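One chain given next:
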Amino acid sequence: MRSHIFILVILSSVAGAAASACARQDASALSGGGQSSAASARAGDIQLPHDPRIVAARVVAGATLASVLRGCKVAEAEVAAVVARAASVFDVRKVRTAQPYRLEKADDGLLRRFEYEIDSDRLLRVTRSPSNAAFVAEVLPIAKTRALVTVGGRIDRGTPSLFAAMDAAGEAIDLSINLADIFSGEIDFSTDVQPGDRFELLVEKQYRDDHVFAGYGPILAAEFDNAGRRFRAVRFTPPGGAPGYYDDRGASMRRFFLHSPLKFQPVVTSGFSRNRLHPVLREYRPHLGVDYRAPIGAAVIAVADGVVVEAGISGGAGRMVHLRHVNGFESEYLHLSTMTVRVGMHVRQGDVIGRVGMSGLATGPHLDYRLKKNGAFINPLTAQRAMPPADPIPAAQRAVFGDMRDRVFAELAVPPATRPAVSAAAGQQ
């Protein structure tokens, strides 16, 4: 029976790691193969072809596709052929640090297969054709399975925030952000959450073939009990429309304005005021916005659909993005480190428009967020609560929505132990 030798080589981040790792792989395979051949010859066994040697590692900083292949002692002619073939289906300049790859070489040193994970969903695969005459390259979806999982948590002294409660439930920060996004029009997660609050949600979790967690799919249904109020949301896609979240009655959970221009649980460090002591100038002057504590580089998003009317340096505001919205509203985002939009661009609610910084007159990294109505500054926190929701479910779709709502909330009520653990992913290969 043909034996397989699998040797996992983990590359360090120092320069030259790929070469040394592949060298160790070659030495080990040659040594083991020689002993096996000698033993087989003494026993009079039929000689079988050697198994391929396998290298599995991650791309080190500064590496390119060509340097990765050279580091594993792939012949120069093959390096050029693989890079050229890969470039026909993928931009090889976008090979990223720390992404995993896997390489197979035959005993004669010829490359049989190379695989590189482009992202969590796609794989670049380059294989030698059966005739050994050329390479074939393709970008493939990474096979995954999916499970519907119920996740629940409670806000208390030990878990005083949504992030802490979700972490205690064994889930990642991404799920906290997704849940907060759904209810951000109704709950201020920086000030409204209190002990005794609870949440429960039905979410799709994705797993690779090796049972490794590969990320979250959409939240299908969610409940949040906050200060004696119960909020419920269900995901629904109207025919010809985009998916959104709606309450039991079909009203949209999406407000005209998002509660915050940050995608994590923000902390207000300075509120809207007509007379505040300026932390740099040390004089009293109006503070016509809300300051949020945030780390440098945190994504800043547009609170509503709009047009960029200003994106540049603006005195003490530093790097600032200014958006114009419908109905006389405008929003401003101050002290940014970088801006990802330019004047004249149209942005959608939730689009990243810049990154938190401390440019201009600032004592530390934070975001100063400001809102105008008909040219006058207004308090963003109080104004958001008065914003109307987006359009509800169309009357013609109410029956379809009602059936789907009842079905997913019934699923949410199923005890996790009785729900099927994993279902096959659509299109899995």
User: Anything to note?
Assistant: The chain is about 20% helix and 35% strand.
